[in-house]
Structure formats: structure tokens, C-alpha cells
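Collaborator request, handled under Task 6.
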Amino acid sequence: MATWDAATSQRLVSGAAALGVALDAAQVDKLAQYLALLQTWNRKINLTAITEARAVVELHFLDSLAVAPLVRDCATLIDVGAGAGFPGAVLAIALPHLRVTAIDGVAKKVAFLQTLKRTLAPNLEPLHVRDEQIERAFDAAVSRATWDPPEWLMHGSRLVAPGGVLVAMQTAEAPELDAPVGFRRAPAVAYEVGGAARRLQPFRRE
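C-alpha cells returned to the collaborator:
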């Protein structure tokens, strides 16, 4: 299994910069440690099928970091169905001022997120709950792959505070989404990771 090297660090830094995210050396080191933890835990529980260092950078870390410019001015964010921490735990490392609540219905995945909190991201709040059990609102809400984007908007809209942002992560060819009731569409963000065209569609709560 390929490990982290200087070329991997450079790809992460340059890829993040292309997305509008500046990573310092400490953050790069934390993401390298994240990869090591992911590889170790993945031998015991199924967190991701992608474990090779460069592939994790391309397909998990950079895809997660694409969200950062949309939530940079937020104080709180919820990642629903956080799994191995994409995008929530990555955003917690990239934006240390952001309080990230990462929820998942699988206890073993939440245990992994707790390890990330203890070792890398003290601003991460992992919770073993379902989204309907959450009774507070956040400045931002995101989910990467738990539902198709239209269904995610139905689940996520109630979790966003007035003036907050609801983010849908899509493939570039996916149909345009209708704004949920009480939200207005913000400009979409196009980007590319791992040679695949992607799109973020934010909606602002009015």
C-alpha cells in the first residue's frame, strides 16, 4: 500500500490551492496522519474502498476541501452520514475555527471519528445518531453520499439556521436541483478531482 511522500504532500497542497484553500504544513501533516489512521482502521472495519495515498488525496481529501470556501465564514456545520469523515473531518482540519458535528448511524464509524477528534481535530463532534434526532440548526449542512442530492435537500433543509447554507455535492452532469422551500439558489461551484468533473450547489436559507 503506497504511503505518504513528498509528491503526495505537493499534490494535496496544489490541489487545495486550486480549490481556493491554503493548507499550512501542520494541516498537511494532520491529513497525512488521517490517511495512516484510515488505512489502519480500514483493515478492521469497512470505511472506504479507496486507501492508496494519492487516491485518498484526490478522491476524498480534495473532494472534501472543495466545500471549504462555501463554509469558511460559518461557525457551525453538520455533516450527515459522515462515514470516514468526508467531508466533515477534513473540513474540521482545514478550518479549525469551524465546529463540525459529524453524525453517522454506524457505531464503528463514529468510533473512528472519535479517534480523529482526539488526535487531529478537537473541533470535531462525532455523534452516533440519525439526522431526525438532531434538534438544533447549523450555519451549514452537507452530506456527501448518503442520499441522492434531491433527497439530501429534503433531509438537510431543516438543519440549516436562517441565513445558513445547505450544500449539495453532485457530479457535473447531474440535473439542476430545485431550491427547497425557504431557500434560494446560490451560484454553483464547478471543480475537478481525480479527472472527474464535479459540482457543488449551495442554497441559502432566507
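The cover message to the collaborator said: "The CA atoms of residues 39 and 51 lie 6 Å apart. The first helix runs from residue 6 to 18. Please let us know whether this matches your experimental observations."
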